[in-house]
Design a protein that fits this description.
heterodimer, A: six-stranded mixed β-sheet, B: mainly beta
């Protein structure tokens, strides 16, 4: 596609429920990143995928968070047993390769846990 | 621990004047610095970057200055235009690291 597409754009969920956030990167971009921005904070790195290499999960805040990237394209970020502190804007970005820092970001998913 | 800090959450400037956005960092291993711009309901878009081997990079109305000894960088927008009203994020990375550390952003409002 022309840009990075994320869905849903907004998600309100009850505490304790699981949620899935989807990212469709730019075609041909091998690097895919998930970041999140909590209120008043900068973007926080969550996870990085590069081609068929093992992902860098070092930014995931707890084992309730997981992500996968199928076929080197679409990625899904899953949050299990959501907590109120998970409320944030979750941003996906892609780039042609690693170290191409001018990422293209999607417009994000605003997650609200009530 | 936030390694990149933007201490001014907001900035208001008259159209045609200069906007100066500041960013400080604590990690001396940072090697590459970027500015992103974000409009409401959109993702951040890459604006301009600078490598640690330089102290200035200019692109049209946008200039980024880097002072490594002070661990400080700034973004100058001259002249400011109403379309520049947005949130600006400063970001940095270490050499050979694909992860970016971001500041919390500065909201710029350009008054007509």
């Amino acid at each position: 596609g022309a840009g990075v597409s994320q869905s849903p754009s907004n998600k309100v969920t009850e505490k304790g429920k699981d949620v899935e956030l989807r990212c469709d990167p730019i075609s041909g971009h091998t690097a895919l990143y998930w970041y999140r921005q909590s209120l008043g904070q900068g973007l926080e790195f969550l996870i990085y995928f590069q081609g068929n290499s093992a992902p860098d999960k070092s930014g995931l805040p707890s084992d309730r968070f997981s992500a996968e990237r199928t076929g080197g394209s679409v990625s899904t970020l899953t949050i299990q047993r959501t907590q109120q502190e998970d409320s944030a804007v979750y941003l996906c970005a892609s780039s042609l390769s690693a170290f191409t820092y001018g990422y293209t970001f999607g417009s994000g998913t605003r997650l609200t846990v009530v | 621990d936030q390694q990149v800090k933007q201490n001014s959450p907001s900035l208001s400037v008259q159209e045609g004047r200069i906007s100066i956005l500041n960013c400080d960092y604590t990690n001396s291993m940072f090697d590459y610095f970027l500015w992103y711009k974000k409009y409401p309901a959109e993702g951040p878009t890459f604006l301009i970057s600078i490598s640690s081997i330089k102290d200035k990079n200019e692109d049209g109305r946008f200039t980024v200055f880097l002072n490594k000894s002070a661990k400080h960088l700034s973004l100058h927008i001259v002249p400011s235009q109403p379309g520049d009203s947005a949130v600006y994020f400063c970001a940095a990375s270490e050499r050979n690291d694909y992860k970016l550390s971001f500041g919390a952003g500065t909201t710029v409002t350009v008054r007509a």
